Amino acid sequence: MPYAEDLLAVIAAPTSAAKAALLADMRAPQETWVVPVPPGRPGRPAHYHEAEETRRRRRTLAHAPTRLRFLQSIHHIELSAVDLAVLACLRAPDMPAAFHTDFLGIARDEARHAGLLEELLATRGAAPGDAPIHHRLWATALACDDLGDHLVAVPRFLEARGLDVSAELLPRLVGLDPEAHTVLSVIYHDEIGHVGIGTRWHRAWCQAQGRDPESHFATVLARLFPGQVPGPTPLDHAGRLAAGFTASEVGLLEGFRGDRVAREEAPAAPAALVSGHQGQRPAADHHIQPPPTIGQPPAVSRQPSASPGV
Ligand SMILES: [Fe+2]
Ligand SMILES: [Fe+2]
Question: If you measure from the C-alpha of residue 156 to the centroid of ligand 2, how many angstroms do you get, rounded to a whole number?
Fold first, then answer.
């Protein structure tokens, strides 16, 4: 099956296990493709119930039922993160093989994260789908115009915000729920890697487009997340810096308000990165060098509602 169809099949698959099975043998593509319109919703089991709003009043995590709802919410964030990583691949017909290898790896990690949470929930007599879910993360990704938007919105905003939430939560959770702490610690450390991958490929994409990464980052945030920066949780400075955020980007996130629209530099002549969608992939992916290694369907909105992170 062509790579793009494989990607769409992963998005349509209902469970973490089904997504993981499809991802297991996927490799970077040999061909290019026309980016299809993504589905309005990713696949989910039939019994999942979608709700417009999640419960807003939260009791302390010392309250076991609250903690269970929290874990169910994180599970769906991880399941959604599989779809978002695969969507990044779908939007990248002209990106190098290394990009696809990286994001397919992220998708496998996210399926594993969802599986870890399913195991934890099972020990507590709970299962995914017991609680209502939402698709705000997917809606945010659909609001992106191109891969550059996606790299800012998903790994560099949603997943990075997940780092902030985890860094604030983990020290409190260690005494309350050691089993949950163990699982969420694994996820946190993997997510630093995901944000790092997103940061490096965002820079590579900007370079190929003749754009300044920090200006592009600020402009996309102002457009897609007005009023959501700074977020409600203190920034995880250590995690963000480990994931490649610059000190000035961290400063921007702390001082940024939605009414401060950064001025993006006019793009220079785009590299061949986004030229044409027909024929074979370039023999050598020299346009973008792989960077060094180091979270009832609402209408798709250009102003996605706040999300806790991926
Ligand atoms: Fe994850
Ligand atoms: Fe992630």
Answer: 10
